[in-house]
Design the sequence.
């Protein structure tokens, strides 16, 4: 199941897997956003007014039992280890159906050119003492998105711009296919046994066939160059069909 939230125009989501059992506490951080899904056009540090939605860390917390406390931790991973650089309680916001919690912070303290230097963790505790922590989520306040880890299948389906690669692939196919089709055609243009050092020129009949073939190839090239999708099926038999 996917939980999606829109907070101040920022979209965040979390995928919940119930195969391992039901969840008594579900946490969805709504700001700051995961740097994997942030846009390069979003530069949060430019919006620092007192009424700005970027002046607080926020998270949605759903629980079977009433929540007693929610806290946020920010880790600095630039040294290779997770060092806590911010820790503070989140308070329940009025009019949020007891689900939205927030904590003030100074967004300018976390400006960094790397989109995965800082990691956010939200910890929620219910009245029975059970605590649940969200997964460490990288975030950025400069709007620089993190690189998404593609598998080769995902890259072929979503990461490759096939529309821009269509014509390079099409012409690469022509360049590879032309020698395969041209060389056998040139070989059969010479009479059997006439290919040797003293007499390597083709006969008059084969020269005429070769001229016709080259003329058709040049004509077909200019036709395909202007409209390859419609002209190619018509000129392929003209150029490559064997003469008997």
Sequence:
């Amino acid at each position: 199941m996917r939980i999606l939230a829109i907070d101040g125009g920022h979209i965040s989501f979390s995928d919940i897997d119930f195969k391992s059992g039901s969840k008594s506490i579900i946490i969805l951080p709504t700001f700051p956003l995961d740097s994997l899904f942030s846009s390069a056009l979003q530069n949060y540090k430019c919006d620092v007014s007192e009424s700005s939605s970027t002046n607080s860390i926020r998270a949605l917390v759903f629980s079977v039992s009433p929540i007693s406390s929610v806290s946020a931790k920010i880790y600095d991973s630039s040294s290779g280890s997770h060092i806590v650089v911010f820790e503070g309680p989140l308070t329940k916001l009025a009019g949020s159906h007891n689900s939205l919690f927030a904590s003030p912070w100074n967004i300018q303290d976390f400006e960094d050119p790397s989109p995965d230097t800082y990691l956010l963790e939200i910890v929620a505790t219910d009245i029975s003492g059970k605590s649940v922590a969200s997964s460490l989520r990288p975030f950025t306040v400069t709007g620089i998105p993190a690189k998404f880890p593609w598998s080769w299948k995902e890259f072929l389906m979503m990461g490759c711009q096939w529309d821009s690669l269509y014509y390079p692939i099409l012409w690469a196919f022509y360049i590879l296919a032309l020698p395969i089709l041209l060389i056998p055609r040139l070989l059969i243009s010479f009479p059997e046994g006439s290919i040797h050092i003293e007499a390597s020129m083709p006969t008059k009949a084969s020269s005429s066939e070769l001229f016709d073939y080259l003329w058709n190839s040049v004509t077909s090239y200019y036709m395909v160059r202007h409209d390859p999708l419609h002209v190619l099926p018509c000129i392929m038999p003209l150029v490559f069909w064997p003469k008997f």
